[in-house]
Amino acid sequence: MSYLNNPQLSEVKLKVLNSALHLFVEKGYFNTSIPDLVKHSGVSTGSIYHGFKDKQSIAEELMAQLLWQIEGEQNAVLAPEKDAWQQYYDLCRWLLETAQNHPHVSQFALRAQHKEFMPELAPICSSKPFIRLREVLERGMQQGLIREMNPMIAAASAYGGVLRLIQLSLDQMLSQPPLEYLDEITETCWRSVAADTEK
Amino acid sequence: MSYLNNPQLSEVKLKVLNSALHLFVEKGYFNTSIPDLVKHSGVSTGSIYHGFKDKQSIAEELMAQLLWQIEGEQNAVLAPEKDAWQQYYDLCRWLLETAQNHPHVSQFALRAQHKEFMPELAPICSSKPFIRLREVLERGMQQGLIREMNPMIAAASAYGGVLRLIQLSLDQMLSQPPLEYLDEITETCWRSVAADTEK
DNA sequence: GTCTATATCTAGATAGAC
DNA sequence: GTCTATCTAGATATAGAC
């Protein structure tokens, strides 16, 4: 089952967007020509340009769809009654799951240099899903589970390790699939921001 | 003073490489044309192609020069007599310094999707400087300053936060220049891998 | 709405004078 | 070694039949 499956979208648009996700990640946006998309998707040039204004708008619609789907999944993962540690753990599991089961999605959302082909798009780190990652840590500070500190530092430290691990995984630098490291990486990263429980 | 200044290189090659660094980061490799390089460097098309085989080899030589220079600086930073914490701290200061004083260098080395325009280049995380980052942590484990754990996890956690902070800085998401966060981010990230000194 | 055929343009790369 | 002028290929995008 492919990741993109918004029933609002026509069959051809879905085909094109799925091919775009595949090819943009495998070859890069600029190395992917419209004829490449035609070949991979089975949709003709004319139909592509009937559905999309130009090549850039394919990337933009792809990004919008992915963000929409990511946001939905993230909301489903976040159970408000849990404490900050549990929320953090669940979010990290979801991040690693996505990297494992839909590596192209992670790669496009996290690694692509969007500025180069979507100049007016806001950077991914100011997107809703990234903001919610930070919010979990801020709740953790209010709960006393995380020590008081600069929220940006806390976010960089708590999620930086996990995101770095995902990048290493996408670069084939790990011997195991990413989820294998879930407990070890979350416990390790959490220590960096956790309040001292000793005293 | 520009970052690239290897006296082995001819004046024109240096001009071209410095312009390439600037333009590849500002506009991206694929959005930078040879005429763009001509305009920015003041070197003519003919001279560029006299010095370089093709556009790709400009990027390759740029990367090679940067890695060579980075490796030299890293060696100068690493004082072998210091303990692992001090080495880690010095390396992080050097990373943040580079991001602050030569953001284009950090951006090209850390963020560019090299695979897309230099297909046969090894990923940056398997380069010598990245390996040395990991070695410092392994020495830390031998010294008992870092708890025993998967070296990849340790590296992802200890450096992931710092690298993440650098990315946020390059994305203009921080209010202060990166070096301002040096102590806070290193102490925070180090906690994640530090051995328990209590017992 | 979907297709094929094609127009147009710009990039990378070269030729050849100096 | 450096320059200008130019070639050529392949990309995006369009036109127009069905």
Assembly context of the chains: homodimer
Tell me the CATH architecture of chain A: Orthogonal Bundle
Number of strands of chain A: 0
| Number of separate domains of chain A | 1
Main structural class of chain A: mainly alpha
Mean pLDDT of chain A: 97
Keywords (chains A, B): DNA-binding
InterPro entries (chains A, B): Homeodomain-like_sf, HTH-type_TetR-like_transc_reg, HTH_TetR, Tet_transcr_reg_TetR-rel_C_sf
Protein name (chains A, B): TetR/AcrR family transcriptional regulator
Domain HTH tetR-type (chains A, B): 10-70
Secondary structure topology:
The structure is a homodimer of 199-residue chains.
Chain A lengths: L10 H16 L7 H8 L3 H7 L3 H23 L6 H18 L1 H9 L2 H4 L10 H16 L7 H20 L11 H12 L6
Helix pairs in contact in A: 1-2, 1-4, 1-6, 5-6, 5-8, 5-9, 5-10, 8-9, 9-10
Chain A binds a DNA duplex (18 and 18 nucleotides) through helix 3.
Entry keywords:
199 residues, HTH_TetR (chains A, B), DNA-binding, Tetracycline Repressor, domain 2, homodimer, DNA-binding (chains A, B), mainly alpha
3D structure, described in words:
2 copies of one chain form a homodimer. Chain A is mostly helical. Chain A has one domain (11-193): Tetracycline Repressor, domain 2, CATH 1.10.357.10. Chain A is built from 10 helices and no strands. The first copy, chain A, has helices spanning 11-26, 34-41, 45-51, 55-77, 84-101, 103-111, 114-117, 128-143, 151-170, 182-193. In chain A, helix 5 (84-101) packs antiparallel against helix 8 (128-143). The longest helix of chain A has 23 residues, at 55-77. Chain A is elongated, with a radius of gyration of 19 Å. Chain A starts with 10 loop residues before the first helix and ends in a 6-residue tail after the last helix. The mean pLDDT of chain A is 97. The interface between A and B is large, with 45 and 44 residues. Chain A binds a DNA duplex (18 and 18 nucleotides) through helix 3.
